[in-house]
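Cont'd.
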Amino acid sequence: MAFIPHTRADVEEMLAVIGVGSLDALFEEIPAPLRAAELTGVPEALTEMQVGRLMRERAACDGTPLCFIGAGAYEHHVPAAVWAITTRGEFYTAYTPYQAEASQGTLQLLYEFQTMLATLTGMEVSNASLYDGASATGEACLMAVRANRKSTSRRILVPTTLHPRYREVGHSIAGQQGLVFEVVPYDPARGTIAVDALDRAAAGGDVTALVVQQPNFFGGFEDVDALTDWAHAHDALLIAVVNPISLGMLRSPGEWGQRGADIVVGEGQPLGVPLSSGGPYFGFMTTRKEFVRHMPGRIVGRTLDSAGQEGYTLTLQAREQHIRRAKATSNICTNQGLLVTAATIYLSLMGAEGLERTAAAAHARTRQLRAALLGIPGVRGAFDGPFFHETVLRLDRPVAPVLAALAAQGILGGYDLARDYPALAPAMLVCATETKTDADIERYAAALERILAPAPPSTANS
Amino acid sequence: MAMREPTIFECGAPGRGASDQWPTPSPDALADIPPQLRRKRRPALPEASELDVVRHYTRLSQRNFCIDTHFYPLGSCTMKYNPKACNQYAMLPEFLGRHPLAPAASSQGLLRCLHELQEILKSVTGMGAVSLVPMAGAQGEFAGVSMIRAYHRSRGDLGRDEIVVPEAAHGTNPATATMCGFRVREIPVNADGDVDLAALRAAVGPRTAGIMLTNPSTLGVFERHIVEIEQIVHGAGGLLYYDGANLNAILGKVRPGDMGFDVIHMNLHKTFSTPHGGGGPGAGAVGVSDRLAPFLPIPIVGEDRGSFRWLDETDLPQSIGRLSTFMGNVGVLLRAYVYVRMLGRDGMRAVADHATLNANYLCARLAALGYDPAYPSRRASHEFLITLKRQSRMYDVSAMDVAKRLLDLGFHAPTTYFPLMVPECLLIEPTETESRATLDAFAAAMARILAEMQNDRDQLKSAPHAMPVRRLDDVRAAKQLDLTWPGAPAGPVSASP
Ligand SMILES: Cc1ncc(COP(=O)(O)O)c(C=O)c1O
C-alpha cells in the first residue's frame, strides 16, 4: 500500500532500533487533543487498474474538440522525441540541481536553454524559467523597479493590448509592493498603441517601465521601434512580452528601436509543451547583462572544476531567497524545469529554419481561416493592418451563443472578447496553427455559416 | 572520468536539421508581414538531426541523479517515489489536448477531478476551502500572505505591516512576506527546536499581520507549543500561516485546521508525489479557514448538482485575483489526484507512519555510528538534522565534504547548510518509499565517511571522484559570468521559409 516497501518484520525491527514499541509512539510529541480522527473526506484506495479506468472515463467525457482558440496558449506540433526524452526518469524525477556534480545533465541543458532564449530574443542573458508568461510579466515589473535607477515613481505603463490575464496577474503579483499600473488605451481603428496615448498616460510624470506585447493580444503588430524609443526617451525601461514562435521570423526585442528592449518575457508553452488544460507551462525571462543581478529565478553558469575541466553550476545565488531571504529578488524557488527540458529539445529539433517554417505555416492557416470566415455574411474584420497567427473578427450578434452552438458541434471557435473588451463586442479572437488542415477550416466555416444563416421562414413561423 | 559532453551547438553541422519535424515550406505565407518587422538574422539555434538531438539529451540525462536511480534524501524536498500511473493518466490525450479556455461544458471530466482534489485536500488539512491555483510552494505562500493582507484590509485594520517568521524558516517565507509588502520580524528558536515563546510574545502586537510557521519545522521536529503559539498570535489579532511543505509527516495524524491555522499551502510535488522535474513544475494549493475563503485566488472549481464550473471574480469579488494565465499547473494537479485516489484514506496514515519510522530509524543508526543529531532529545518527524560541528573541529571537514563524498558512494546528498542557524548541518529526509535495506546502505556509506575523516581525509576533502566532474568552482562561476555558449554560430541572413 501507498508504495511502501516495508515488511511487517522490517517495521518491528526498525522500531526496536529506535527503542519504541509502536508506530503510534513516534507521534507522542503531538499534543493528544490535536490528533486527527478518521479522514472521512478521503475515499478508500483504488488500485492502479481502477484509477486508470476512472481517468480514461473522465478524459473521454471531455473529448477532443477542434480548437481555434489561441489567446496565450497555442496548439503546435510537438515532435515525438521531445516528450520521449523529457519523461525519462533522469530528468523527470530529479530536483533542482543543488548538487551540481550529480546534476550536470540538468545544468548543461539549462545552460543550453539560456543560450537559445538569449539568441532568440536578442538579449545577453536568460534565467532558467519562471512559472508562466503572466507571472513572468509581473516579475519583470518588479525587476524594472529594482533595475531602473533613474526612476522612483514605480509607475508601469500597461497598454490594453497586453493579454488581459497578464494585466490581472501582474497586478496581483506586483501590486502589493506599491507599483502603480497606468492603463494605456489602444487605438480603436488599428488595435495597437499610439505614441500619443503613452504621452497622455504618462502625463509628464516619471515612468519606471513600459510593457509592450508583440504580437499583441489581438495578434496585431505594435510599432515597437517607436514605443521602445519613447520609453528610453522618458528614462523608462522597455519590457517586451513576446511569443517565442513568432521570433522565428520577427525581429528580436534586442533590436527594437535605437537601444533594444531591456527585459524580455513570455510564455514558453508554444515551444513543445502541449495545451495541457493550461499548465504546466513555463515563463521565460532574458535581459541585458548589466541587469542580471536584478533578475529573479535560477541562473546556470559554466565554470571549472578542481581539475580544471569545464562544468556547470547554479550561480548568482546571492539574488535568491535561500541566501538573501527577505531581500531576495523574488520568492521563487521551484520553477518549471521539466517544461524547459521539453522546450530545449524542441528548439534543438526545430532550429532556426524549423521555427521560421512553423511561424509561417501557422500564419498561413490563420490567413486561410480569416479569409474563409470573412466570406460569411455577418462576419467582418475588427482592425486594419497586419497580424500574426491570430486575429479579431466581429460578428453581427452576441458571440457567446454562437460559440456555444459551435462547441455543441465539437468546434471551439475562438475566444469571446465581450468580457475583457466590452467596447469591441460582439467580437472574438480566432487562431489557427500549422496543426489545422483545409478540411478543419472548411468544417469550421461551414458550421459558422449555418449558425449565422438567417432562419428559414418555415421555422420562424413554427 | 567521463568524457565531456559537447553542447548541442557543437553537435550537428551547418545546414543540417531535423526537417522531418518541420512543416512543409509555405512560400508566401509571411508576405503580409511588413519587412521592417522581419528578422534580418536567424537566431543561432542548433542545426542537428533528430538522432543528434536524441543522443545528446539522452547522454545528458545520464549525468543526473534522480529518484528512479538513486536514494535522494534531500531534506525538506520529500523526494519519494513518483508512481508511473500518475504520469500516464495525467497525460491522456484529452487532458493534454484540452485548451485552457475550452468551455466548462466540454471540460466536465477535468473539472470533476479538480473538484474532488479540492475536497480531498480540505479533508486532509481540516480547512474550509481550497484553491488549486498556485504553481509552487512559494506561490502558495504568496497567495496565503496576500489573503492575510486582504483580510485585515477588508476590516479596515490597516496598521498590521509585520509578518513574524522563525529564524529556521525556509527562505521563501521571508521572501514572500516582502513580496506582499510586509516587514519581516524574525524570532529565535530555542535549544530544543521549538519557537521561543517569550520572543514570540515580545514580537507580536498591533502591527502583527500574522506568523508563518512550518510544522513539523524545518528542524525536523513537531512544534510542541503549537496551541500556545496559536493563542498568542490570534490573541494579538494576527493570523496563522502554515507552510505545509512538511505535510508528509502528519498526513492523517494531525490537521493544520485543527491546530488553529487560518491558511496553509501544500507542496503537491512533495507530499503528493508529483515529479520534481529537475526544478519543477510544482503545485502549491492553498487551504483556508472559512473567514479567508472569500479571498482565495481564482479560479476555483464549483459544483452545482453534479455539474462543474470555474468560479471567478464574479463569484469571489474579494479574491486576491489571478496568479497564473489560466489555471495553475493543471497537469501536476491531475498527477496529485491520481496519487491521492491510489493512497486512499488509510494510505495517507501509512505514509506518515512510515516516513516517520524511516527518519527515526536512520537517525538512530547514524547516532549509533557517532554522528550528532542536532536535537537529540527530540523525536524526529519525517526528517532529521545532524550537525557536523564536532567533526569539523576535530578533522577539519565540512558538511559539504560529506555531501560530495556521498555522491561517490551512490547517494544523492541530503540538504546542506539549511537551516542556516545550525552549523555544518545535513537535513535528511528518507521518505516512506525507501526500504530498510536502502537506509542501511546509506548508514554504511556514512560509516565509511566517518572512517575516512580519520584515515583518509584527502579522499573526503577532494570528493567527488566518481562524478562526470570534480568539485566545481562556484566562486569562479559567479565572478567570471559565463551564462550562454559563446560558440553559438551567428545566424545567417534569413532565407525565405
Ligand atoms: C519548508 C519549505 N517551504 C517552502 C518551500 C517552497 O516551495 P517551492 O519550492 O515549491 O516554491 C520549500 C521547498 O522548496 C520548503 O522546503
